[in-house]
Design goal:
- By secondary structure, this protein is an alpha+beta fold.
- The chain has one domain.
- The protein contains three helices and twelve strands.
- Strands 3, 4, 5, 6, 7, 8, 9, 10, 11 and 12 form a ten-stranded mixed sheet that branches.
- Strand 4 and strand 5 form a beta hairpin.
Length: about 170
């Protein structure tokens, strides 16, 4: 039930906020530039999507890192998550490097371990909304940031449908 509610919440938010025709480079890239490490796609996997692998949550090039969007509710916090491939493989399973592994609004990026097993990151959104989860490679290390997205970053319904249809193939 929680998954269904989150899905329809995401659809409602995107439908209500994306009626504008303005297209930013970020939105255009939402269906391309997917992150692959060791020939494996990397996804946001956590409580916001029942840890499922879905093209909707695949990380894509955005600025200095690779990001995806997810709808969160503040009353369901904290959300636990990791970035990982579909098999949680060594080298592509990113959890926190050092405890406690908590990220909050306004906190700088925290370092990740690409070989983590159980080290999930916890995030506490201050308000309901769509959030941007980013994996940032820097000098041979990896970092995570989570920020509330702007309306310009939100995908259109057509883009969401295109991403969802890839999961069915």
């Amino acid at each position: 039930m929680k998954t269904i509610t989150k899905f329809f919440g995401a659809v409602f938010v995107c439908a209500s906020l994306c009626s504008c025709s303005e297209q930013t480079e970020h939105v255009k890239n939402i269906v391309s530039n997917a992150l692959t490490i060791n020939d494996k796609g990397i996804y946001l996997r956590g409580e916001m999507n029942d840890y499922e692998v879905s093209e909707t949550y695949r990380l894509r090039k955005s600025g200095a890192g690779f990001c995806t969007l997810a709808t969160l509710r503040s009353d369901w916090a904290p959300y636990k998550f990791k970035f990982a491939d579909e098999n949680w493989s060594k080298g592509t399973s990113f959890g926190y490097m050092n405890p406690p592994g908590v990220i909050r609004d306004g906190i700088k990026a925290i370092e990740l371990n690409p070989n983590s097993k159980f080290e999930e990151i916890s995030y506490f959104p201050k308000a309901d909304g769509v959030y941007r989860f980013c994996l940032i490679p820097q000098n041979g290390k990896y970092f995570v940031t989570v920020t509330r997205s702007s309306k310009k970053e939100l995908p259109t319904m057509a883009q969401l449908i295109k991403l969802s249809s890839r999961d069915i193939d």
